[in-house]
Amino acid sequence: MMYELAIGDRSYSSWSLRGWLLFEAFGIPVTTRRVRLYSDDFTALLRDFAPARSVPALRLEDGTVIPDSLAIAEELASRHPLAGIWPQDAKARAVARALAAEMHAAFGALRSHCPMNLRSSYERCDPPEPVLADLARLEQIWGWARAQTGSPGPWLCGEYSAADVFFAPVATRIATYNLPVGPQAAQYVAAHLADPALRRWRAMGRVEGPDQPFYRRDWPQRPWPAAAPLPARAVESGPSVNAACPYSGDPVTHFLEAGGRVWGFCNAFCRDKTAADPEAWPAFMAIYRA
Fold it and tell me: For the chain, which residues make up each domain, given as ranges?
């Protein structure tokens, strides 16, 4: 099956993250078309994905457009029933769907005060009472989900599912704005920050161009609250250890240094997304460790 997914800036578009994770986390191939939010290109993209009014929007192989993340999740689950998008257990599946539906429709105060921003993290953000109420509700339903499903691991309903996809941007908000949550919620946030798929998304977002001024806040900043990535930096030239790009297999033209060695890639984006977080990319780490 051929899918085409329209997304916005990876650093800022929380719903785009949800749409992309529905493919990346469950091993479903997709072609993405990314444009910058608040630009003429974004308006043109939406016209091409009519009747979508925002991103993500999914085009199926027959040309049908699905312009909503929850609808995308359900359509993919129908088409790929063994992918694990929803839990196999009936009770866990019902709980996961309830969680995703509430996330889709609620938490307006949190969304407004703390827009997703994967390029910054703040020491504080002075959350008002409605944001604190949203956080309390999140902790309530996350605890309820674990109690209902008996989830023993880091995720809400057993194995990673669409419920976790829908809360991934919430986890990044808690991390970005240093929001006050209890130990169990903090562990859930940490699981998202360590998730390789989310790390790949954030790495790509960090090298996609300048900051969007709309998302800048004047609160004191702190480092991103996750393990520091493997040090890497772009360099002007080789020779490189590898002759072919680890992602495309094409000849290398761009280079980075990591671990005291030089590695090659077929274009600047392949190089830069790797330099942003080398350990997020299994294809690169395979040759790095070899």
Answer: 4-79, 90-200, 233-289
Does domain 90-200 correspond to CATH entry 1.20.1050.10?
yes
Average pLDDT over residues 244-254: 98
Contacts 24+ apart (CB under 8 A), 268-273: 269/204, 269/207, 270/245, 271/234, 272/207, 272/234, 273/200, 273/203, 273/204, 273/207
Span 24-76, pLDDT tens digits: 999 999 999 999 999 999 999 999 999 999 999 999 999 999 999 999 999 99
In sequence order, what are the residues at sequence separation of 6 or more whose Cβ sits closer than 8 angstroms to the Cβ of residue 36?
A: 8, 9, 42, 209, 212
pLDDT tens digits, 114-164: 999 999 999 999 999 999 999 999 999 999 999 999 999 999 999 999 999
The residue assigned the tokens 């330099």 is: 275
CA distances in angstroms from 64 to 49, 149, 154, listed in the order given = 9, 35, 36
Q: Across residues 101-110, what is the average pLDDT?
A: 97
Q: Cα 8 vs. chain centroid, distance in angstroms? A: 12
Coil, strand or helix at 7: strand
CATH 3.40.640.10 for the 4-79 domain, yes or no: no
